[in-house]
Every structure is written in structure tokens, then in C-alpha cells.
Amino acid sequence: MKRAIIASEDANFTNNNGFEIDAILQAWEKNKARGKLAFGGSTISQQLARNLFLSREKSYIRKAEELVITGMLEFWMDKERIFEIYMNSVEWGNGVYGAEAAAQHYYKTSASKLTAWQSARLAVMLPRPKYYDDHRNSAYLSQRTGVIARRMGAAVLPQGSGTRRSRTPVMASAQDARRIRPWQRHKATFRRDIAGLPFAGPAVGRSSAN
């Protein structure tokens, strides 16, 4: 089940610093297109920060608070501990919290006895757990489950107590190397948008350009 969660929610969990800049910028552009805050681009660490300390309110101020708390979690805890708390506390449906409760709620078994398909299906539910609890026959849920099941083998689990993150560089594939990273393509627009936000004074605008 752990591999399913990482494959679905944060494929680079063991190597990132708690943030994925590309995902944040992609979410920013999607939000601009929609005219509202609908996407967050959150890593597992960010989700844990929100789940433990913040409300479900969608605002840029709340997002900023999430980023600050994420930095604190990454400083004080190793990845293994962050993931453990996340697995035991994340919401998985109406009144369902944690992997063990989810396994019992949906499949009447323990988390350790879930099949790969069941694990993948539970992982896919995480962005909208209450919705999928009420719509278990969703076509998207079934389709996405197959995708995550195929990715599980490549998921890297956090290993070893005391290691906050791996320092080993991750080699990009040839396909990734040919892509232009979103933050390179959109960073000028992102800086301009940040400077124009109501709570972003001149100092914020200048600092974001550094």
C-alpha cells in the first residue's frame, strides 16, 4: 500500500525537500485559467502539514502557511516518520482516517493483506476521499487505479531512521531531459502574478525574483 500512495501522490517523495516547484507552478497556472484556487500541487509532506494543523480552506494565505509548516516538518522529522504519520492520519472517506481503517472500511481486511489492485484503488481515492466513498463505481477511479498499479513497482519507499532525504541525485530519463521544465518556462509570469496579489507588497515581489 505504501508504494501505491507514493506512486499516486508524490512519486519523488524520498528525494524532494517537501516541495515540488514544478507541481506548484502547474497548479498556479491551472488556477489562473479557472479563475479560482482549485489545484494545490501538494506533496505528501504538504498534505500532512495541512491535515495536522490547517483547515481545508482554499486560499493563498492558507497555502503559504502550509509551505511554512512543511518546511518545519521536513527539518524536524525524517521522511520515514513523515510518511508514517501521513498513512495513519490521512482521510479516506466519511469518518475514515488512516490506512488500517480504510482497508477495513472498503475491503474488510487489514492494510497488510491488501492486494496491489486494492492498494492502488485506495491511493487514487485520496484527493477526493468523501466523493469516492459515495461514488465507488466511478469510471475514473477504475481507470486511474490501473495506471497507479502499473507505477507501483517504481515507487521508492523512505528507508532508514534519521535520514531526512536522499542526497543521491536522481538521473532523468531521456524523455525527461528533452522536456522544458515548467518552472523555467513560466517563472517570469509566476513572479509577476505573486507581486500582484493583495498580500504581496513590493518586498515580496522583489524577493520572489531572487
Give a description of the structure.
The protein has 210 residues and is mainly alpha-helical. It has one domain (2-199): Biosynthetic peptidoglycan transglycosylase-like (Penicillin binding protein transpeptidase fold), CATH 1.10.3810.10. 59% of the residues lie in helices and 2% in strands. The protein contains 12 helices and 2 strands; from the N terminus they run αααααββααααααα. A two-stranded antiparallel sheet has the order 1-2. Helix 3 (44-53) packs across helix 4, helix 3 crosses helix 5 (79-89) and helix 7 (116-125) crosses helix 9. The termini are far apart.
Helix content: 55-70%
Number of domains: 1
CATH topology, which one?
Penicillin binding protein transpeptidase fold
Q: Biggest β-sheet, characterized?
A: 2 strands, antiparallel
- N- to C-terminal separation? 40 Å
* CATH superfamily membership: Biosynthetic peptidoglycan transglycosylase-like
The outline comes out as globular
Overall average pLDDT: 78
- Order of strands in the sheet with most strands: 1-2
CATH architecture: Orthogonal Bundle
Helix tally?
12
Low-pLDDT ranges:
165-187, 197-210
Number of strands: 2
CATH class: Mainly Alpha
Strand content: under 5%
Structural class: mainly alpha
